[in-house]
Amino acid sequence: MDMPQLDKRYTYADYVTWPEDVRYELIDGVPYMMSPAPGRAHQTILGELHRQLATFLKGKPCKVYPAPFDVRLNIDTGDDAVVQPDITVVCDRSKLDDKGCNGAPDMVVEILSKSSLSRDRVLKFNRYLKAGVREYWIVDPDSKTATVNILDNGRYYSTAYDETDNAPVHVLEGCTIDLKDVFAD
Predict the structure, then answer these.
(1) Does 2 map to a domain?
(2) Which of 111, 4, 116, 8 is nearest to 66 (CA)?
(3) In this predicted model, which residue has the larger pLDDT, 125 or 117?
């Protein structure tokens, strides 16, 4: 199939036919091209967050996946949202298949970049909320902060942490992330 057009609505069935050499996310049927390769700071933060989460989860039922990892947010209602969070944590193994996660993961982390700023803070924030993602972290490499959004009664409650904090992971009892190590360069 040719590249998706921005003026047309798509589903997951369309998404899987697109060329693999260009990464897209599909949000409410609209394709969004992703940056070719994240910068060094982004990848350093991603690596450290993944390391800390994977170390904590060793031997536990939940699993952590770094991007690219497809998450189909609304597989039961239209199947028009496929995102690739920087980090995805899934505790319900029945949501996993060879292609990724089907339904809302327990936790997602997005690391901001200039090209993804409004998509992560507004569009994905609302999409993750609607899908029922229980914990959504927005990590800002420039300000060295993490905004942790916890789902409660249909809305997110946010707490901001900076590079000096140990931030609790609410969906993983006993897990904290040392942000000093996350933002170390």
Answers:
(1) no
(2) 111
(3) 125
Q: How many domains does the chain have?
A: 1
Report, as an integer, the average pLDDT of 31-55. 90
Give me the mean pLDDT over the 156-179 stretch.
Answer: 97
Distances (CA, A) of 20 to 24, 35, 39, 64, 116: 9, 14, 21, 23, 20
Q: What is the pTM of this model?
A: 0.91
User: Are 107 and 136 spatial neighbours (Cβ–Cβ below 8 Å)?
Assistant: yes
Q: 47: domain range?
A: 38-182
Q: Averaging pLDDT over each range in 3-12, 18-27, 78-87, 105-114, which range is the top one?
A: 105-114
Please give the sequence-ordered ranges of beta strands (E in DSSP) within the chain, or none if there are none.
Answer: 24-27, 30-33, 63-66, 70-72, 82-83, 87-90, 96-97, 100-102, 107-111, 135-140, 145-152, 155-162, 166-168, 176-178
* Residues 170/153, Cβ–Cβ less than 8 Å: no
**Where residue 62 sits, what CATH number does that domain have?**
3.90.1570.10
